[in-house]
Write a structure and sequence with these properties.
The complex is a heterodimer of chains A (about 130) and B (about 150). With about 130 residues, chain A is α/β, with parallel strands linked by helices. Chain A is built from five helices and four strands; from the N terminus they run αβαββαβαα. Classes of the chains: A alpha/beta (about 130), B mainly alpha (about 150).
């Protein structure tokens, strides 16, 4: 009986770990090299649990989920990443967010086929991120 | 009877309260209430346009509303009896304090009863909340102007 419960709970715990890659990218651009570079950087950061990278035209949108205890430094991590990316890719509009809402919406956005609609939704998302109250 | 005698007698007669078990109950029930709050905030983030920054207000409002309904139906009293501080410390305890004192004053009329009793206990929560928020902000303002912290 106990063995069965133990095995079941272990299985459930393991099933809880999803097999999603740490960084998922959606890119509509020709510059493959840039994109791979950012991916590599994101993967190397230990504070990040998961990240979504959206590259559309000149927009560069990074939504990430931090590890629980790193959430104390959320603002600092966001600013550091924004600065880092802006220094490297000065010709694109960089947006970095560690908000759950941004991560959730960007995951949904990646399944969107229509590029015009996607860009519109991305702008709405950027506006939402600026809201204070 | 002298005061000391009375105290020793009182200590003998009073049944011992199981502190450890009470703490555990409060921990578990308080945790469950917080879990419900987290679920509600995820709900607002997934289905409405709230970010992690702005989701606090609607979540608190919903939690207080649920606690008020439960108090009105007489269910929150049972929870409070079981969990003690576990049900009083989260924001739901505030809703319970407002509605229970309003119900208490119902017999004395709408103005002098419900109106004046409603914030009998919750009033001090609001007062000290505002005052402590003022002082915390003052401290943070000083820290920011010195350059130790950022807003």
């Amino acid at each position: 009986m106990w063995k069965a419960i133990l095995t079941l709970s272990l299985l459930l715990i393991l099933a809880g770990c999803n097999d999603r890659e740490k960084v998922v990218t959606y890119a509509l651009t020709d510059n493959e090299q840039n994109q791979q570079e950012i991916e590599k950087l994101l993967k190397e950061d230990d504070a990040i649990e998961q990240a979504n990278l959206l590259v559309i035209e000149d927009e560069l949108f990074v939504a990430m989920q931090l590890k629980p205890f790193e959430k104390w430094n959320r603002k600092k991590i966001e600013e550091d990443w924004k600065k880092k990316l802006e220094d490297k890719f000065s010709d694109s509009k960089v947006n970095v967010s560690a908000d759950f809402k941004m991560f959730w919406e960007s995951t949904k956005l990646m399944e969107e086929k229509d590029q015009k609609k996607m860009l519109k939704e991305l702008h709405a998302l950027k506006k939402l991120a600026k809201e204070e109250t | 009877m002298k005061e000391q005698q009375y105290n020793t007698l009182k200590d003998q007669i009073t049944p011992k309260s199981p502190i450890a078990i009470n703490c555990l109950k409060a921990f578990a029930v308080g945790g469950v209430i917080c879990c419900v709050g987290q679920a509600i905030s995820f709900f607002y983030m997934m289905f409405f346009d709230f970010t992690e920054k702005t989701v606090g207000n609607p979540t608190v409002a919903t939690m207080v509303f649920i606690a008020m309904l439960l108090t009105g139906f007489g269910q929150y009293r049972k929870l409070g009896q079981f969990a003690g501080a576990g049900s009083a410390v989260p924001v739901t305890g505030f809703g319970n304090a407002v509605v229970s004192s309003a119900i208490e004053g119902k017999t004395e009329g709408l103005v002098l009863g419900v109106g004046s009793n409603m914030f009998k206990l919750a009033g001090s929560v609001i007062l000290f909340g505002v005052v402590s928020a003022f002082f915390v902000t003052l401290i943070k303002l000083i820290l920011v102007s010195v350059g130790v912290a950022a807003w």
